[in-house]
């Protein structure tokens, strides 16, 4: 199972649309995971129309139209791996320990908010990942996103730079 993992798209504030590279990944993915801060309803509707399956949450910049349609926390089992998705996890210091307590029944926690790519493990084995942002790099050197190949309980996760090919 192939996943596309994105967050913090901030449309149309930071870009008019998702980069073409992201839309190509949407077409290849069995599921798209979005960790919030869509910023407009059209972004959600466009991804819902084109993605085979969409798992998403709202972020702190998402208004009532998005909050009515999306949960604060989403959970899904994909390819035998238990995922949870949330926008914010709090400060970086202590994140792994804090999230392991909040999500004891999860294998992978996808989060956003910081626009900083992140891939660590808690002592419990929980993997915490943040794909960064494909449209708003903030102080990061590149716009980024992640893909994952999930097979029989294992997860091969990769960080990609927008503009460098698939």
From TrEMBL:
Keywords noted in UniProt: Metal-binding
GO molecular function per UniProt: hydrolase activity; metal ion binding
Enzyme class: hydrolase
Cofactor needs: a divalent metal cation
Keyword Metal-binding: yes
Segments crossing the lipid bilayer: none
UniProt key word Metal-binding: yes
E.C. number: 3.1.4.-
Family the entry assigns: Belongs to the metallophosphoesterase superfamily. YfcE family.
Matches recorded under PANTHER family: VACUOLAR SORTING PROTEIN VPS29
UniProt name for this protein: Phosphoesterase
